[in-house]
Design a protein that fits this description.
It is found in: Cell membrane; Endomembrane system. Helices cover 28% and strands 44% of the residues. The chain has 133 residues and is α+β, with helices and mostly antiparallel strands. The protein folds into two domains: 4-87, ATP Synthase, domain 1 (Sandwich), CATH 2.60.15; 90-131. A five-stranded mixed beta sheet has the order 2-1-9-8-5, with no helix packed on it. Strands 4-3-6-7-10 form a five-stranded antiparallel beta sheet. Strand 1 and strand 2 form a beta hairpin.
Length: 133
């Protein structure tokens, strides 16, 4: 199967760089799967899991908490606000993230910001449930 270049940059390190067959992204407008030859798109990412398919039955999963994806026909670059490989994620780390977002939500009087933060809390809770923690 055809491949394309996928680069994933977190705030502290590069989490992935290599040739892949497909990448599933949690876009703010909805989940999307990128394959070779994809039309150019720039999208923001919500809290969720990026699934990287290196080859059939082989890949990686990365928890992302916001960021952007620059998609083109020959490659995808993700720049994440916060991210970690699934192997490094624990129930306690997700609970800590939820608590941090709740503190931000409780500290603001901006109704639009509160709604955005409520959405992040829900997405983190759903991600925790999806990962069977």
């Amino acid at each position: 199967m055809a491949t394309f270049q996928f680069d994933f940059v977190g705030p502290e390190r590069t989490l992935y760089s290599g040739q892949v067959e497909a990448v599933q992204l949690p876009g703010t407008e909805g989940e999307m799967t990128v394959l070779p030859g994809h039309a150019p798109v720039l999208t923001s990412l919500k809290v969720g899991v990026i699934v990287v398919t290196e080859r059939q039955n082989s890949g990686k999963r990365i928890l992302v908490r916001g960021g952007f994806a620059d998609i083109g026909p020959t490659g995808v670059t993700v720049i994440a606000e916060r991210a970690a490989p699934i192997e490094e994620v624990t129930p306690a780390s997700i609970d800590k993230d939820i608590e941090a977002v709740e503190l931000q939500r409780d500290a603001t009087e901006d109704l639009q910001k509160r709604e955005e933060l409520n959405g992040q809390i829900t997405q983190l809770q759903e991600t925790k449930a999806t990962l069977n923690f």
